[in-house]
From TrEMBL:
Catalyzes the dephosphorylation of undecaprenyl diphosphate (UPP). Confers resistance to bacitracin. This is Undecaprenyl-diphosphatase. It is a multi-pass membrane protein. It comes from Gracilibacillus oryzae. Bacitracin is thought to be involved in the inhibition of peptidoglycan synthesis by sequestering undecaprenyl diphosphate, thereby reducing the pool of lipid carrier available. It is found in: Cell membrane. Its main location: membrane. HAMAP family: Undec_diphosphatase. The keyword Nuclease does not apply. Keywords: Antibiotic resistance, Cell membrane, Cell shape, Cell wall biogenesis/degradation, Hydrolase, Membrane, Peptidoglycan synthesis, Transmembrane, Transmembrane helix. GO terms for molecular function: undecaprenyl-diphosphatase activity.
Length: 271
C-alpha cells in the first residue's frame, strides 16, 4: 500500500509540473502548494531536475522545426557568411543575451533564494498575486515586433524579467511573455522567444546539477516513481503547451490572471 501511495504521489507531482510549466501560473509555486496541501515531499534534489528535463523535452519536440532552422542558419551565417541567414543568427544572439541575467543570478544566489523562499506558502501566495497583476497588465497588448525587429535591449529586458522567476510563485513563462510583450513583440513572437529561451536555461540548470544527481541516495530506491513522474510531466507539458499556444492566439490571458488571484488569496488566507 505504501508503494502504491508513493507512485501516486510522484504521479501527482509530475502532473502538476507538466500542466503548470508552460502556462503563466508558476510550476514551482504549485509544487510548493501541492506538497503542503497533501503533505507529500519528493525526497532527493534530483527530482526537480528530472521533471524539468521532461518539460524541456516536450518543448524541444514542439519547437523542433524552429530549433533546426536556427541552428542550420546560424551555422550557415558563421561559416558561409550567408546573409539570408543573418536574422536567425541574430535571434540566437538575442536568446543568449536574455539567458545571461538569470544565469548569473542563478549561479550566485539560487541556493540562498531556495533556502529563504523555497517552501514558504505565504511567499507563493503573494508572488502568485504579482504574477496575476503582470499577466493582467499585458492581456490586451498586441505588439508589432517580429523576429527581425528585435534588439539586444529587448532581449536583455526579457532576460531580467525571467530572472524574477527564480522566486517561487513567479511564473517563468509568464515573466518572459510579459517582458516580451512589454517590449513590443507580437504574441506569436513572444511565445516562441519565451520557450526557446527556456531551453538554454533548463539545459544549464541540468548540467550544473549533474553532481547532485550522481550523489542522490534517492535514485536507487525511487527510480520507478521518478520515471512515472518523468513520463507524466512530458505528456502533460506537451499538451499544456499546445493548449496554451491556442490561448495566446485568441488573446485570453486574462483567465490566467483570474486564476492566480484566486489561488494566491486562498494560499495566503488558509495555508
Amino acid at each position: 500500500m505504501e508503494e502504491l501511495l508513493t507512485l501516486v504521489k510522484y504521479f501527482i507531482l509530475g502532473l502538476v509540473q507538466g500542466i503548470t510549466e508552460p502556462i503563466p501560473i508558476s510550476s514551482s509555486g504549485h509544487i510548493v502548494i501541492f506538497r503542503e496541501l497533501f503533505n507529500i515531499e519528493a525526497r532527493g534534489l534530483s527530482f526537480e531536475i528530472f521533471v524539468n528535463f521532461a518539460s524541456l523535452l516536450a518543448v524541444l519536440v514542439i519547437y523542433r522545426k524552429d530549433i533546426v532552422r536556427l541552428v542550420t542558419n546560424g551555422l550557415s551565417y558563421i561559416f558561409k557568411k550567408d546573409m539570408s541567414a543573418k536574422q536567425d543568427f541574430r535571434f540566437i544572439i538575442y536568446l543568449i543575451s536574455a539567458t545571461i541575467p538569470v544565469g548569473v543570478v542563478g549561479v550566485l544566489f539560487d541556493d540562498e533564494i531556495g533556502s529563504l523562499l523555497g517552501n514558504n506558502t505565504t511567499v507563493v501566495g503573494v508572488t502568485l498575486l504579482i504574477t496575476a497583476a503582470a499577466v493582467w497588465m499585458i492581456r490586451n497588448l498586441r505588439g508589432r515586433k517580429n523576429d527581425g525587429d528585435l534588439t539586444t535591449k529587448d532581449a536583455v529586458l526579457v532576460g531580467i524579467a525571467q530572472m524574477l522567476a527564480l522566486t517561487p510563485g513567479i511564473s517563468r513563462s509568464g515573466a518572459t511573455i510579459v517582458g516580451s510583450m512589454l517590449v513590443g513583440m507580437k504574441q506569436e513572437t513572444a511565445l516562441r522567444f519565451s520557450f526557446l529561451l527556456y531551453i538554454p536555461v533548463s539545459l544549464g540548470t541540468g548540467i550544473l546539477e549533474i553532481p547532485d544527481i550522481l550523489t542522490d541516495p534517492a535514485i536507487d530506491t525511487l527510480l520507478i516513481p521518478y520515471l512515472i513522474a518523468f513520463i507524466t510531466t512530458f505528456i502533460a507539458t506537451y499538451f499544456a503547451l499546445k493548449w496554451f499556444m491556442n490561448i495566446m492566439a485568441k488573446g485570453n490571458l486574462k483567465y490566467f490572471s483570474y486564476y492566480c488571484v484566486i489561488v494566491g488569496l486562498l494560499v495566503i488566507l488558509f495555508m
